[in-house]
């Protein structure tokens, strides 16, 4: 591999690491609680939820 290609690969790696370093991190327990809350709030809109109110098909 040439030094130009190697330098380019290292530059891409550095850019990726800088991007990842800037991402806000939260605890898994907090993420799980937020996900559970989101799911509970949107369960009535979930087409795969077997417990939601049945509707008639709009195509019929």
Describe this structure in words.
The structure is a single chain. With 60 residues, the protein is an all-alpha fold. The protein has one domain. The protein is 55% helix and 0% strand. The longest helix has 19 residues, at 3-21. It starts with a helix and ends in a 19-residue tail after the last helix. The mean pLDDT is 84.
Please outline the helices and strands.
Elements: H1 3-21, H2 28-41
Q: What string gives the helices and strands in order?
A: HH
Structural class: mainly alpha
Q: For the residues shown, what is the average pLDDT?
A: 84
The total of helices stands at 2
What's the alpha carbon Rg, rounded to whole Å? 23 Å
Number of domains: 1
Number of strands: 0
Oligomer: single chain
Name the overall outline.
elongated
Distance between the termini: 63 Å
Helix content: 55-70%
Task: Output the keywords.
60 residues, mainly alpha, 55% helix, elongated, Guanine nucleotide-binding protein subunit gamma, G-protein_gamma, lipoprotein
Describe the structure concisely for a colleague.
55% of the residues lie in helices and 0% in strands. It has 60 residues and is mostly helical. It has one domain (3-45).
